[in-house]
Design brief:
Rossmann fold; six-stranded mixed β-sheet; 6 strands; binds S-adenosylmethionine; alpha/beta; 5 helices
Length: 151
């Protein structure tokens, strides 16, 4: 991995950075528990990871860009590393690619915190025909989609 990538700061436009509200993560944890480790592959400043660690989970955090939290320079879309569980709030402009990658690499549960509009759309509709969400939930501030890997 080159330093150029590791030290790359998130561009003002392009990283699609948005910090997940704490309430949304707590809402997820009211409804779901996770056995084993957690991967947060687009951790940003650690909003999700910090809450999960506080609740006693073992979390591996990385991001393509550097925000001073987790391991920077890791492009999740080319990762081949299998994980127990994955929780993230993906960049919305890459949400489907992240979802496909997450479901292929995760052995237990995938939880994606994102806008509810993700459930709409033709291309995503095709994907959901084969890999439907087990459950979706929404909080006042954030919409959540959780799904179990289907194999
Ligand atoms: C919507 S933000 C969410 C940040 C954090 N998960 C949170 O909930 O606060 C999306 C994150 O995805 C990261 N990202 C964008 N493309 C990525 C990629 N290919 N691999 C890993 N992270 C990526 C961005 O740098 C940004 O931190």
């Amino acid at each position: 991995m080159s330093n150029r990538i590791v030290n790359r700061k998130a561009p003002k436009k392009g990283a699609d950075f948005y910090e997940t509200p704490r309430d949304a993560i707590l809402k997820l944890l009211e409804n779901e528990s996770f056995d084993g480790g957690i991967s947060e592959p687009a951790c940003g400043k650690g909003a999700i990871s910090r809450v999960m660690i506080e609740k006693g989970y073992r979390v591996n955090s990385s991001d393509l860009f550097s925000y001073g939290y987790g391991k920077p320079g890791v492009d999740f879309l080319v990762s081949k590393k299998k994980v127990d569980n994955l929780i993230t709030n993906p960049p919305f402009n890459l949400a489907l690619e992240f979802t496909k990658q997450a479901t292929s690499l995760t052995m237990r549960k995938v939880a994606l915190l994102m806008r509810i509009q993700f459930l709409e759309g033709k291309e995503r509709g095709e994907f959901f025909k084969h890999t439907p969400p087990r459950e979706s939930m929404s909080s006042a501030k954030e919409s959540l989609v959780t799904k179990r890997r289907l194999t």
